[in-house]
Amino acid sequence: MTARRAALAVLGVLLAGSVGTMVAAQVSLLPPGLDDRPAPRPRATPTPRATPTPRATPTPRATPAPKPAPTVRATSAPPTATARPAPAPPRTLPPSPPPVAAATADNAAAPASDPLDNIDSALIDQVVRKVAPHFDIPPDAQRSLDRVGFLAEADGGLPATSTHYLSGDYVGALLGRMQGPLVSRWGHILLRRVLASRLDTPVGMNGADWAALRAALLLRMGEADAARALVQEVDSGFYTRDLEDAAMASYLATADPVGLCPITALTAATRPGWDWDLARSICLAFNGAEGSPALAQLDRALKRDDAARLDVLLAQKFAGAANTTHRAVQIEWRDGDGLSAWRTGLSFATGSEPPEALRRKDWATYALVASRAPMLGLASRAAAADQTAAIGVLSSAAMVDLYAQIAALQEPDAVWGPLAQQLRTAYVAPDAGDRLAAIKALWGDDSDPVRLMSRGVLTAYAAARISPDAALANDAPRLLAAMLSAGLDRNAVRWAPVVAVGSHAWGIIAVAAPAKLAPVTATTLGAFRDADSSPARLRSGLLLAGLIGLGRVDPQTARDFAGQLGFDSGRRSRWSDAIDAAAASGNPALVAMLAGYGMQGAGWNRMTPLHLQHIVGALRQVGLEAEARMIAAEAVAQS
């Protein structure tokens, strides 16, 4: 009966407009003593049940004063910035209608039952469905769209005001044109940090679209968990079309289709598309309703041509988990010619894995999702981790935890079990030689650079436990690269006294050290160049660019050495002007976004010394020197 009374109350709100005039003529909205007219005398007729006991007509409550609109932020923007529009006032619920004080003689003789009990239930249900979205979240609990993100500045995020005066069109074009992998693992980590930060909505942009723009880029980077957390920062009733798309991809990438249900019930309730139709059917199966209407809808979907048979079967299998019919669904993977976000997400959600032939068609994309899927086997996740740790999705600690779980199994996988034991040896063997041998065995050969980088991340802390020794000069560059993949710069500096000046290891330490260790001379740079075996001596150019950006080389020495390499360090471009201007204004978020834009590519052979020079210099200027050093060291180590 409680649910029915709630529905009756909602119906009363909608009917308030038609009886408002009559009510106003009989009942004052002010408490007694604040009106010139006396309060109406209670009649003998029993009051409606909606009125709380005692039966006497209660004193009407005063209508609360509307809350003032939020104060508009200061608009003392630069001349080129557009003034920020004032935010819309928060939505308020319509006031409940006052009780009707008058009663007729016919009513007085009626039995003491609720006069609204005879209203058609279908009408009540229709009214409740129509107004339900407006009651999703109380006005006082609704979150503002002026600032969106889940990583606060106190927790490591960037300053929220960094994007306060930025143009929405400019930021949208900048982030929208970034398509995915970055050449730098530390560049990936920095960009993820920016996109997750709680930042002000740029001028002229909707806060929901601001969240959607960043979530979409996080998904292209393989950061599904961060993308999902970001879309959840916006109340479901305020979703835009772009945010709905980002939410669909985020929940599928994290194997959680049910997370879409609040959206399909509100803003996307009537959105067309086979994927949204299937999502609504899935949500219907999980809403606790009796019977199997959801499965019936999915049966009809099999007869239509708007969705592939494989996609509908996956939806049926997942929806069946919420139904008591226990219908068996056989997934026919032969009907699929490739994987999509829907197929990968639904297969994970049902506890299965696509066939290896489909996984290998686009292994890099599949691995980004599989490495963080807890429902997959450890062997599958470890294989995917060899792809994702190299680009920055997994940290060294996460990699070690994954292998520790494999080692703890009673019957470890035949491939990954021995590797987990090797990792244990690399960390805890008493003899340093045994530890180094285990580390090198985990690294393997150079046939797969991505795997080699991921295994370096895996062994970062083990490499830091190797004592510096001049006899290990040949292994020093890889050991240093492994340490610095986890940011262990102080451990790397311990090798400075034992490496040869001008060697590859010396160049890594020269840009990774927290402070300048020794003067960089033309002779030293010349020795580094002579030992450089990279194509077109790219490594020497990137070392010089990092030293210039960090301010660790004399300007004249830098110009002379740049001339020898054919590197014009003074050349300008629209991008270099933009990142230098952002650095001059002290805007770390914009600098990081422009740095990410300049680091797009699948390998360090796609990076130019000019770009690295401006990136390192700009990051250092806005207080991100640690990230600047790690990016420069990675460039020298991996090129």
Task: Briefly summarize what is shown.
The model is unreliable at 13-135 (pLDDT under 50).
Question: Which features characterize this protein?
Answer:
mainly alpha, two-stranded antiparallel sheet, globular, 639 residues, 31 helices, 2 strands, single chain, 1% strand
Kindly describe this structure.
With 639 residues, the chain is an all-alpha fold. Among the domains are: 372-489, no CATH class; 500-639, no CATH class. The protein is built from 31 helices and two strands. A two-stranded antiparallel sheet has the order 1-2. Helix 7 packs across helix 8 (241-253).
Unreliable residue stretches: 13-135
> Can you tell me the overall shape?
globular
On the 0 to 100 scale, the average pLDDT is 82
- The total of helices stands at 31
The structure class reads mainly alpha
Question: What percent of the residues sit in helical stretches (DSSP H or I)?
Answer: 40-55%
The biggest sheet, with number of strands, parallel, antiparallel or mixed sense and barrel status, is: 2 strands, antiparallel
- Widest sheet: strand order? 1-2
The separation of the N and C termini measures: 72 Å
Count of distinct strands = 2
- What is the CA-atom radius of gyration, in angstroms? 32 Å
Q: What fraction of residues sit in β-strands?
A: under 5%
